[in-house]
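Posting this for the archive.
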Amino acid sequence: MNEPSSGESLGAKTVSPLLSGDRRGSVLAVLYRSVSAPTPAGAGATLKPGFRDLKWGDAPTAEMKPRGPWVGTYSDLDAFERPGDDLSVETVSIFNLIYGFRAGKLAAVKFKVVFSQRDEALNVLSRAWGEPSHHNRIGIETWGWSSSSSIAVLAKKDYDVGVVIADRKYAQAHEEKKSGL
């Protein structure tokens, strides 16, 4: 089992009520505003630009397969999956790992976390990325991380746990377009 090195950016495959839909997807927009400032220097943030071996702006790799449109907040993305991808983040089992591309460039990644490992997922991400911001709005508990290049959110609602990591520039432009700025 390959484990990502500490600080790698992390991202879901089936449609989840937590990571899709207008009302629930808006939680990511609210959280974006709350994590939009990079974590102050020295606060332990090591959120890197991209996910695993891909950086924001990279093209899909040869082994990636199109999966149709991205479902959820970033609906302007094309979704891809990579057969044989490692479905773990350190000791945490993940599933539904989806890479989102806009105009052929990586802009976001999302994945689901096995519910029984929700607390371990938060611990793993916090060790890698530093202390998160924490919010509990409309019944969805969220933790967010931010750096100059990326934002990341772990969200929990009932038995649904998901992670989204996005290019900061893409997320900011998406939010501005959505709000009409």
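The longest strand covers residues 92-102. Strands lie at 65-69, 78-81, 88-89, 92-102, 105-113, 133-137, 140-146, 150-157, 160-167.
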